Backbone:
């Protein structure tokens, strides 16, 4: 059986009177892509933020690589092996594509006290960045200013930066947002390549993409999980059909 | 180092080494003062330009550096520079550590207000309590000894000592900005949330930057005390904090050279607006000219003098369109 | 300390706190609503005080009015000034980053100070308490308390109550509070944002100036007065929470008490104590005591 890399137990998040995430259980296995889908405002992004540590838990626990990280800060979880890509583009626009990845890689090998060493001599972060850029195919754009990339390329860079920190688990928040058909296919192929060595949580709206690539699907509505299963199971699930289409087929 | 940076350093060095030969006592004093401003501005550039932390309380560290230098100088004998300078730096850095540790828990506008408040606190301690000698200030009776008989006194000697300090600070900050630490600071400035998600403990990075910045401001304060041999509470006033912010904006944020250029520009503007020859009786109200310059330069030249080239490259309509930004309706 | 001395200090603390609240309320509302950090807010207080000094003789000569008439004239002038400033200057500050706002409003402080210096000079002036308010109330056997200070507290309370009523019970107040919590949402709901901003801004200026006007007889009129109150207002906003009127009120009163009593009991550290208070509260609640819009 595959190793569980990340587990969220009874995750809850309360904002005043609103329960944004309500008793959600989720498991990310090594070598599997787990998609989370749901209507708008279902709490999917909040779920990612709870798992990543950006938002504190109102209830429940998070286990990362068999350690209880519920009280850990986001940077600490990231250093253990949790990578997150954002829904909005959070690349550094004024820096080159290469520098974006190098800075991300630096997170794993920080050594901030070595102020006399310029970044040109930081072999770890430089080689790591080169590896990641090669893998994502962005190496041809290495020297370009990140702000000048096309939208699809920026989303790719976003994922590349996530990879540069060498994570075991990837939390991807709508990586396909705003992408055309060809770019979507490229990204999906890329995710397939990543699958064997990582555990991936994918929040997405693009149903075709999700059904193409996911091993497991969790469906959320109003902060709670209404269904969890393999793609065929979800397709035939009455509750899901009602939530999405308003009627069971 | 980029060619343009090297070029700048060479020009600066030659100007500063050459000028004393042809300058009067007044100009020499002005240049020393301006170099001290430049070091002060560089300390703030690290915080504002590189890390994105708008600190409105930098004068506290400057003042503490200066006051420590004077308070710990023996009254009857000479003190050693090797003891006095590190002490001044340490005192300024210590206060920066305390202020930073507390203020960095706040964000955005709160941070600006809190740093201002802490600077005021230092001002009141010096102004009201017997610790600081009160409103009249205190005198430095004996300048410190560097070693054996060599005393740090005399305008030319202090001038060159300040020049050396300026270049050392520039060198250090230059190294810092191209190091891992410096790049991390830039990342924090652009998007702190992203940096945290990647695994950087941003609070500590910011705190260290804050302390380094305070220490450098302390150096500037120390030099100031050496130059005039006199300190008073006004050097902790928030107007000095405002002035140094003005310097780095005038010069251009995000570049160490900008801080130096800004300091010189500010000093020149001060001379201009204070000049009785041009403004007559209005020279007493020189803050007016300074205030108007500040407003206009932020409105028209947000990237400072350094960014003039960038600004000129944009077309005029685009420039004017950016001028008045109405509250937008975002969908 | 005997009972009546204590009572006097309490009354002083409340008076100072309420005055502070008037100025701080404008600051916190302007920031909460329009996102503008306005360093020049203290200058409006100063302008009010100098208005009270400068207008009094003019009003006496032209209309023949006394204190109250000067107040009204000054208030009208302040509203007009606020409107003008928003239109000519502050509307350029929306959407700019904090650093630019800080610098531009700081530049404005310098401009205001020098204009005041050119028009009215740099001397310290006293402003007379109007005759009908200059009596004192007897407290116990020996102590007396000036009625004028009670008048200040009274007016501030009235204004504070009026503000709270407008903000909580009227539609306008609702729009203001909504704008203070979520600007974009309020705009997209079709509210005439530009008018609302101008109104709120002018009110903030007017209230701060009014505070300066009524405080003038007690504090006298001097060049640095705008800045000293500005920084204390910042402490109020930090402690109370940006955009929160309730927070501003509580924080102002808190500071009023700390400041007044420390001046009496520990005069050497009085100036510093307020900041120590701020530091302590920051350790516990980095975003202030209350949230925006309350």
Residues:
């Amino acid at each position: 059986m595959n190793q569980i890399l990340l587990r969220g137990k009874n995750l809850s998040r309360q904002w005043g009177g609103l329960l944004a995430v309500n008793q959600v259980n989720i498991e990310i296995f090594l070598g599997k892509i787990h998609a989370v889908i749901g209507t708008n405002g279902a709490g999917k992004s909040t779920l990612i933020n709870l798992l990543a540590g950006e938002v504190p838990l109102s209830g429940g626990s998070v286990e990362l690589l068999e350690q209880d990280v519920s009280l850990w800060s986001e940077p600490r979880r990231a250093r253990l092996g949790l990578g997150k890509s954002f829904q909005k583009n959070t690349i550094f626009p004024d820096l080159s594509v290469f520098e974006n990845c190098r800075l991300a890689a630096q997170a794993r090998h920080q050594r901030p006290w070595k102020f006399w060493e310029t970044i040109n001599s930081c072999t770890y972060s430089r080689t790591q960045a080169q590896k990641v850029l090669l893998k994502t195919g962005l190496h041809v754009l290495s020297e370009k200013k990140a702000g000048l990339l096309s939208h699809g390329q920026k989303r790719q860079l976003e994922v590349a930066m996530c990879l540069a920190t060498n994570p075991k688990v990837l939390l991807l928040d709508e990586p396909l947002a705003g992408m055309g058909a060809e770019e979507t296919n490229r990204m999906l192929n890329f995710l397939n390549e990543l699958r064997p060595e990582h555990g991936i949580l994918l929040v997405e709206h693009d149903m075709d993409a999700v059904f193409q690539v996911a091993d497991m699907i969790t469906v959320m509505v109003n902060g709670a999980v209404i269904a969890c299963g393999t793609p065929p199971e979800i397709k035939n699930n009455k509750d899901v059909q009602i939530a999405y289409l308003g009627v069971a087929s | 180092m980029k060619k343009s940076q090297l070029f700048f350093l060479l020009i600066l060095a030659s100007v500063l080494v050459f000028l004393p030969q042809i300058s009067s006592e007044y100009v020499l004093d002005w240049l020393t003062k301006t170099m001290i401003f430049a070091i002060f501005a560089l300390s703030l550039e690290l915080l504002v330009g590189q890390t994105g932390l708008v600190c409105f309380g930098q004068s506290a560290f400057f003042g503490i550096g200066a006051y420590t230098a004077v308070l710990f100088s023996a009254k009857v004998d000479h003190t050693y520079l090797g003891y006095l300078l590190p002490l001044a730096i340490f005192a300024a850095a210590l206060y920066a550590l305390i202020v930073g540790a507390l203020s960095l828990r706040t964000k955005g506008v709160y941070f600006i207000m809190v740093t201002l408040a802490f600077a005021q606190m230092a001002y009141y301690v010096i102004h009201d309590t017997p610790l600081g000698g009160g409103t009249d200030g205190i005198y430095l009776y004996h300048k410190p000894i560097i070693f054996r008989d060599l005393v740090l006194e005399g305008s030319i000697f202090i001038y060159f000592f300040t020049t050396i300090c300026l270049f050392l600070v520039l060198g250090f900050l230059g190294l810092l900005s191209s190091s891992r630490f410096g790049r991390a600071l830039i990342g924090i400035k652009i998007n702190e949330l992203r940096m945290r998600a990647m695994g950087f403990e941003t609070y500590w990075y910011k705190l260290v930057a804050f302390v380094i910045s305070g220490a450098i401001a302390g150096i500037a304060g120390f030099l100031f005390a050496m130059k005039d041999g006199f300190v008073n509470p006004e050097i902790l006033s928030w107007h000095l904090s405002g002035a140094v912010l003005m310097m780095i904006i005038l010069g251009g944020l995000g570049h160490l050279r900008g801080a130096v250029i800004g300091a010189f520009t500010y000093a020149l503007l001060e001379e201009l607006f204070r000049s009785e020859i041009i403004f007559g009786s209005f020279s007493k109200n020189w803050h007016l000219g300074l205030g108007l310059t500040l407003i206009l330069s932020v409105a028209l030249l947000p990237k400072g003098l350094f960014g003039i080239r960038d600004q000129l490259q944009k077309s005029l309509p685009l420039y004017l369109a950016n001028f008045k930004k109405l509250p937008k309706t975002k969908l | 300390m005997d009972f009546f001395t204590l009572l006097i200090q309490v009354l002083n603390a409340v008076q100072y706190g309420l005055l502070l609240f008037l100025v701080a309320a404008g600051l916190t509302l302007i920031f909460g609503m329009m996102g503008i950090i306005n360093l020049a807010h203290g200058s409006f207080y100063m302008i009010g005080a100098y208005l009270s000094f400068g207008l009094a003789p003019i009003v006496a000569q032209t209309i023949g009015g006394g204190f109250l008439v000067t107040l009204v004239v000054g208030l009208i002038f302040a509203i007009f000034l606020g409107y003008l400033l928003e239109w000519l200057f502050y509307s350029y500050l929306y959407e700019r980053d904090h650093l630019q706002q800080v610098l531009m409003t700081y530049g404005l402080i310098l401009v205001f100070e020098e204009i005041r210096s050119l028009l009215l000079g740099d001397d310290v002036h006293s402003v007379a308490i109007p005759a009908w308010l200059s009596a004192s109330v007897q407290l116990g056997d020996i102590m007396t308390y000036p009625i004028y200070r009670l008048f200040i507290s009274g007016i501030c309370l009235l204004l504070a109550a009026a503000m709270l009523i407008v903000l909580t019970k009227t539609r306008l107040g609702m729009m203001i509070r909504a704008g203070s919590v979520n600007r974009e949402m309020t705009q997209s709901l079709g509210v005439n944002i530009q008018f609302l901003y101008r109104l709120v801004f002018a009110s903030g200026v007017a209230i701060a100036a009014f505070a300066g006007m009524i405080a003038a007889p007690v504090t006298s009129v001097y060049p640095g007065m705008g800045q000293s109150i500005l920084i204390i207002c910042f402490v109020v906003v930090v402690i109370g929470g940006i955009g929160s009127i309730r927070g501003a009120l509580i924080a102002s009163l808190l500071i009023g008490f700390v400041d007044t009593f420390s001046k009496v009991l520990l005069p050497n550290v009085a100036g510093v104590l307020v900041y120590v208070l701020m530091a302590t509260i920051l350790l516990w609640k980095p975003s202030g005591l209350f949230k925006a819009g309350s």
Notes: The mean pLDDT of chain C is 84. Chains C and A do not touch (no CB pair under 8 Å). Residues 3-224 of chain C form one domain. Residues 3-34 of chain C form the longest helix (32 residues).
